[in-house]
């Protein structure tokens, strides 16, 4: 790869990383709102809005794993951890300073919306550590087994396993700390996991498209990876 291609490849990697981190941080900040979704009359989901951007993170790590390799995928995961904890510090500092009398959002409202963010970020990070690293490990295990073929197989097998671990761990910690009642654990586990499985299946064409574009742009063979020395 020439210097120009390396610069372009690294810029794309940074853009993917930015999308990954913003999706992760956003999911931690908005998780307290829950909504329902009637899936064509087959099943009604009851899930947190925080789950909406979260599957994007797994899609991005799968693209990075496939094109840039395991090391670069792990680097993005680590960067996401630091970004989430840094956002937690900002929210905590914002909660501690007193609101003015004319502030559109008073202390009580701010605390109600963001007060559980610390618990959410901790729960999310514990689940995130388990799920993302496991996702990357499983993805590359199947990549070796299939010799770089059957992208849909490693994408879905890795995501299904890691998403269950993620959903279970988050709910376990949130219920243990009293943020969510235990009687909601079972239904939220089922809804969260089914929703993530559905999204993982639906995003497979997007994964194929992204990988195809990058492989064509950088003339990669099937199963080949870009080598970025940083």
Automatic annotation (TrEMBL):
Record's subcellular location: Cell membrane
Listed transmembrane segments: 12-31, 43-64, 76-93, 113-136, 157-180, 192-214
Chief site of localization: membrane
Entries under InterPro entries matching the protein: YhhQ
Protein topology in the membrane: Multi-pass membrane protein
Keywords: Cell membrane, Membrane, Transmembrane, Transmembrane helix, Transport
Tree of life domain: Bacteria
HAMAP family the UniProt entry points to: Q_prec_transport
Family statement: Belongs to the vitamin uptake transporter (VUT/ECF) (TC 2.A.88) family. Q precursor transporter subfamily.
Function: Involved in the import of queuosine (Q) precursors, required for Q precursor salvage.
Protein's UniProt name: Probable queuosine precursor transporter
